[in-house]
Design goal:
This protein is 33% helix and 27% strand. The protein is α/β, with parallel strands linked by helices and 387 residues long.
Length: 387
């Protein structure tokens, strides 16, 4: 803890640099360059341009037969930075409003700890700097490029504005939802609005379809299971006095369980393709598969929990009682190898660090950076404990 505290000023400087120059998914070129510069200064070997802008860095350990991977996402959001601070974003309409700048700084802090103190880690360390978590999902192409080759265990973290700095958030089992984009096309037959019986009103069919979709959640899903269907976009019609012959609906499906996901997709398809027939129309369902659900492995979560207790005390562990229906592509890493995803408290009302993520006023309590570095170092040291 004492050695990590020495890195605090350095961590803050790096985080603020990333914060001032945010880049969107698959375009993190300056960010990649900065990370490579820091790794060069530390003498750490790496490969860059992985999955476009990602980086894989390796540090050899005492036991070269076991490798612990740590992941940090790199991309920012297309949001205007509204904060009045000297490190506010210099790029119009872009902001690190989700803490990825902190994630990268923490990962570099782990590397700095071992390099500056000339400490050889107990096991091999692989540092994964991943692009495009917020957009197309950089995890899959990183894995395809060999990010997890010879990796035995992987940990990821996320800043958590809902819990105070110094708290560590954990959850066993499902932690983040899967996602699917729902594209629904309803076909009818246009006619004059004064004589609707001469056509087939696609808007009326769409309205009944939307209501029908909500009955899947209320009547086909066990109340103890989790699933959300939201239709967030409707395109229809050309004029107020014309019966519309076409409606396009766009929505999202979120689930925590692969079986629930499969069942709900089946019912959505049945609803969309059969209900419109009763009204004389036709329906088409197009699914765009999104991220898979993030399901933590039990033993790695216990490692995180015990490390947090050892470092900060039992009162600093917050065991989440509900999963997050938002998505997180770290899920793909722990589909391949054992691992755990946890959260790092960064809330501090005294510093006004209490705005939600994906908000132009979002900021972190920078004291949280050292806690993140400490946790990941401990996760490396105790990584083999239960495996």
């Amino acid at each position: 803890m004492e050695k990590v505290m020495k890195l605090k000023k350095w961590l803050i400087e790096i985080r603020r640099d990333f914060h001032q120059y945010p880049e969107l998914g698959m375009n993190e070129f300056r960010t990649m360059g900065q990370i490579c510069k820091y790794l060069d200064e530390m003498g750490i070997k790496y490969k860059k341009n992985i999955a476009n802008t990602g980086i894989i860095a390796d540090i050899k350990g005492e036991d070269e037969t076991f490798t612990v991977a740590l992941r940090a996402d790199m991309d920012a959001l297309p949001i205007q930075d509204n904060k009045e601070v000297d490190y506010a974003s210099k790029i119009q309409g872009r902001c690190h409003a989700c803490g990825h700048d902190a994630h990268m700084s923490i990962l570099l802090g782990v590397a700095k700890y071992f390099s500056s103190e000339k400490i050889k880690p107990p096991y091999n360390i692989r540092l994964l700097f991943q692009p495009a978590e917020e957009t197309v999902g950089g995890a899959k192409p990183m894995i395809e490029a060999g990010a997890l080759e010879n990796v035995d265990l992987v940990f990821g973290l996320h800043m958590d504005e809902n819990i105070e700095t110094g708290m560590i958030g954990i959850r066993y089992g499902s932690m983040n939802a899967s996602s699917d984009t729902l594209r629904i096309k309803i076909y009818g037959e246009s006619c004059h609005g004064a004589y609707p019986s001469k056509g087939v009103d696609a808007i009326v069919i769409a309205a009944h379809t939307i209501i029908g979709l909500q009955s899947i959640v209320s009547r086909n899903l066990d109340a103890r299971e989790s699933g959300v269907i939201t239709i967030g976009k409707i395109n229809a019609g050309t004029a107020g006095n014309i019966v519309s012959d076409y409606v396009e609906l766009v929505g999202t499906l979120r689930t925590l369980n692969p079986d629930v996901r499969k069942r709900m997709l089946k019912r959505i398809d049945e609803m969309v393709t059969t209900l419109p027939i009763a009204y004389g129309g036709k329906g088409e369902f197009i699914r765009e598969e999104g991220y898979t659900a993030l399901v933590n492995h039990e033993r790695p979560v216990t490692i995180v929990k015990e490390n947090a207790i050892e470092l900060f005390g039992p009162d600093k562990v917050y065991e989440k009682d509900m999963a997050n229906m938002g998505v997180e592509d770290f899920a793909y890493f722990i589909e391949e190898v054992p691992g755990a995803f946890f959260t790092l408290g960064c809330k501090n009302k005294l510093n006004n660090n209490c705005f939600p993520a994906h908000n132009g006023n979002f900021d972190i309590d920078e004291d949280s950076l050292v806690y993140g570095v400490m946790m990941q170092i401990m996760n490396i040291y105790n990584g083999k404990k239960y495996l």
